């Protein structure tokens, strides 16, 4: 277990380093001068040179990469070009909004999808099973961006039931502002997880120990909840870690559509403004979250499933 964890840490560090180095290369490949985009075409060459020096763009690319990782080892991600605040403060100020959105989206999706998957498996090939399957495939196929715009138009603009933009202030207000974004992000996962649980349940319900439990006269509810479901839900635990990456990419669109604060909107605005230190810091934290989530899902799956534990 500890050797596996050490390997994942080394692999995670390598992934983060490669992602940040690739992003620096992409930044240099973007046509145009960041100083012109930030200061305007009327800026004097002196001001442009000063901004180049401030952003480190006057140095060779290799030096910039070494400087960035050297600062990273010291806990220094640089400074926001506009506010002159440390990038770490800017990023971690927005991060809680994205985390709460992802957690709420995952929690409600799992809470709805698991019972749906179980019920579909217990009523295999029935009309309800077929209807759930059609709806699940439809929710998987519709992009979260389209779902977000549709939910915004229907429930916020046309019906006026829920707020359209922002994140709210107090606890109750923040919960209300989370409903539409979390619905748009999680609805696709309801379909995906429900189909995954259904397939796992059908496989497990056909195994010998389930037949043995039925022969002992146990009720179907007892068999499903006590024996089949704990095994059927294991693939869901694994896929949630992978889904964090998908949800983080969806958060970019969701936060922009609903004008919510968050790390996704922060990166988008920083790219538009050529605020490259914030782009690098936001991408670093996002990559770290993805690596951490996938590693944690594997460890949790290993703790719950002895078969997976033997493979570590």
UniProtKB/TrEMBL annotation:
Keywords: Cell membrane, Membrane, Transmembrane, Transmembrane helix, Transport. It comes from the Bacteria. Residues 95-297 form the ABC transmembrane type-1 domain. Pfam families: BPD_transp_1, BPD_transp_1_N. It is a multi-pass membrane protein. Its main location: membrane. It is found in: Cell membrane. The keyword Flavoprotein does not apply. CDD domains: TM_PBP2. GO terms for cellular component: plasma membrane. Gene3D superfamilies: MetI-like. GO terms for molecular function: dipeptide transmembrane transporter activity. InterPro entries: BPD_transp_1_N, MetI-like, MetI-like_sf. Signal peptide: none annotated. The chain crosses the membrane at residues 9-30, 101-122, 134-162, 174-193, 221-246, 252-271, 278-296. Coiled coil: none annotated. Belongs to the binding-protein-dependent transport system permease family. PANTHER family: DIPEPTIDE TRANSPORT SYSTEM PERMEASE PROTEIN DPPB-RELATED. This is Peptide/nickel transport system permease protein. It comes from Mesorhizobium muleiense.
């Amino acid at each position: 277990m500890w050797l596996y964890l050490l390997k994942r840490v080394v692999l995670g560090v390598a992934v983060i380093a490669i992602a940040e180095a690739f992003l620096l290369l992409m930044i240099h490949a973007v046509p145009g001068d960041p100083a012109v985009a930030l200061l305007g075409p009327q800026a004097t060459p002196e001001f442009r040179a000063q901004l180049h020096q401030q952003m480190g763009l006057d140095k060779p690319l290799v030096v910039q990469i070494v400087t960035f990782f050297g600062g990273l080892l010291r806990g220094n991600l640089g400074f926001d070009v506009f506010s002159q605040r440390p990038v770490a403060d800017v990023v971690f100020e927005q991060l809680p909004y994205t985390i709460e959105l992802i957690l709420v989206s995952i929690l409600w999706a799992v809470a709805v999808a698991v019972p749906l998957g179980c019920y579909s498996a217990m009523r295999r090939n029935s009309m309800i099973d077929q209807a759930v399957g059609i709806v699940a495939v439809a929710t998987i196929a519709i992009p979260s961006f389209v779902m977000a715009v549709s939910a915004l138009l229907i429930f916020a603009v046309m019906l006026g039931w829920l707020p359209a933009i922002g994140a709210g202030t107090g606890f109750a207000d923040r919960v209300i502002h989370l409903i539409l974004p979390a619905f748009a992000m999680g609805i696709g996962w309801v379909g995906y997880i429900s189909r995954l649980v259904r397939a796992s349940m059908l496989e497990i319900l056909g195994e010998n120990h389930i037949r043995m439990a039925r022969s002992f006269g146990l009720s179907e509810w007892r068999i499903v909840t006590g024996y089949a479901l704990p095994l059927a839900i294991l693939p869901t635990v694994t896929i949630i870690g992978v889904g964090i990456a998908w949800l983080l990419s969806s958060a970019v669109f969701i936060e922009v559509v609903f004008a919510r604060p968050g790390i996704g909107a922060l990166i988008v605005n920083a790219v538009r403004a050529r605020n490259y230190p914030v782009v690098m810091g936001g991408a670093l934290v996002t990559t770290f979250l993805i690596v951490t989530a996938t590693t944690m899902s594997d460890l949790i799956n290993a703790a719950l499933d002895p078969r997976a534990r033997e493979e570590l």
